[in-house]
Amino acid sequence: MQRPFPNTIPKRHAIGESDREYSDFDCCRLADAYVCAPDDNSPGTLDALVDVRYYSPEAKLDLYVYDNLFGTPARRFSVLGLLKGDALISSVGTLITGEASPYDVIKGAPDLYKEYQWNGSTFGQILFPGIYPDVTRYQGEQNQAIISSELAALQPGQPTGQIRDAWRLAPGAVTAHLAETIFHWLPANFTVTLPPGASKLSVLSITVTNHGPGGGGFIATLHHLNEVPTNVFEVWQVSSIDGSSRIINPPAYARLTSPVSISGSSIASGNIVGMVVLYDDMYINVGDSGTIQSPASSGYMQFEKAISYHLNAQGLEEGIVAFYSTSQNNAALSNQVVLVKVFLSA
User: pTM to 2 decimals?
Assistant: First the structure.
């Protein structure tokens, strides 16, 4: 089987009622089909993603991937029962899905996102490298589509800064948004410094200096979504400003199971070092260490904490491990931050 979804724009075919015979049940319909030729366009290897939507309050979606459309189609992959689900082919040729978490008390908008890539024999779940503002590729591509729509609506001569989500196109604004929204730092207490020649760089290392009590800060590494220069910026890595605060374990992109052992190090400035928080793909706290105590009020120290977490779905989910270190002897007041991208399993 060729790589099912190449880096080409797929054709989307709306399927009408005449295609109902492809559905196994009268209560569902064939919603959409995405058809892609492989890179070499060889006859007999055409591939398709087929979405099947159920007529039910939960608006479940089944997705199927077939190949060999010119011959006898063969099903290569399927995911069933996505609540309020969506399934698309990403701009980089992977399969991305969105759904409402099965264990949500109120089944609202999709809040669980996954990405699959062909590995030579099947589709395996993979991690999107982004940390903020999008934790998954599905979120990133949906937000990119919104930005593109806003830009297209501008009148001639209007600057791009007038669109609602202009901050996503400015690396400094994205980094400041992270500090304010997730770290809860006051804008008056920090400054953002871009590297020289930032406008010509494809990868940027941005320094945020904390001028509030205790000082500190962090360094964020940003890329454009899918490395396309006109796309939105995504934070890929966050480390402490001077390297004194670290997450030792888990390493980036590790697969975690609850309870997970988190270890790290920092410089103590009192008896409280900080806190570790586990976030899901919506930046919801799914588990934390509570206050991490230091055996000494000063000097270098290491810690290790067993943290239990709870997810609203089975399987793998993209998430973040955050270490908030403090120089103010108060776990609620962070001075330096480290973020690590991981897979959370349930």
Answer: 0.87
